[in-house]
Amino acid sequence: xxxxxxxxxxxxxxxxxxxxxxxxxxxxxxxxxxxxxxxxxxxxxxxxxxxxxxxxxxxxxxxxxxxxxxxxxxxxxxxxxxxxxxxxxxxxxxxxxxxxxxxxxxxxxxxxxxxxxxxxxxxxxxxxxxxxxxxxxxxxxxxxxxxxxxxxxxxxxxxxxxxxxxxxxxxxxxxxxxxxxxxxxxxxxxxxxxxxxxxxxxxxxxxxxxxxxxxx
Length: 216
Description:
Distance between the termini: 30 Å
Number of helices: 10
Structural class: alpha/beta
Order of helices and strands: EHEHEHEHEHHHHHH
Largest sheet: 5 strands, parallel
Shape: globular
Strand content: 5-15%
Strand order of the largest sheet: 2-1-3-4-5
């Protein structure tokens, strides 16, 4: 990532949205390109403005944040960082399934919000590893109507890619994976990109969830 991160803020509560915008605009490397008050508007503006990232509330009128996230990610419009009031909000699970790059609590401090935006813009989808590991573990334990993950999907991966997938399941960042597996961070990014493609996943968060479901 280089240059300015272009952000679309989607939040139905005007006071909260104004606060988020104020914080984001305080950073010289972040530009707020648009604001949306509901999910439908968020998708429409994402199509029009093509931001780098959408800061998406999960509970919004007209079209909820989960559905909006799915549309934005499926169409390849932007990365999505979901906002929630509770770290284990049921909506967050759906947002991760929909391909969100990560999640953030609304009570996060300004400095952490800015760093989270930069983190996702760099392609580092897992924010606050300790919290994310808890979320992923809880999510993976939830009963699902979808069939259980099949271990045979791992046959598509090389040994190294399986090791990287396992590290993603632990909530490790690229730097953490590089240190764990004794490889360059750029090489980790390459492995992550390849395994996402092979497994037909939209984000590293989905890869982390899959790792938990597979028990690797």
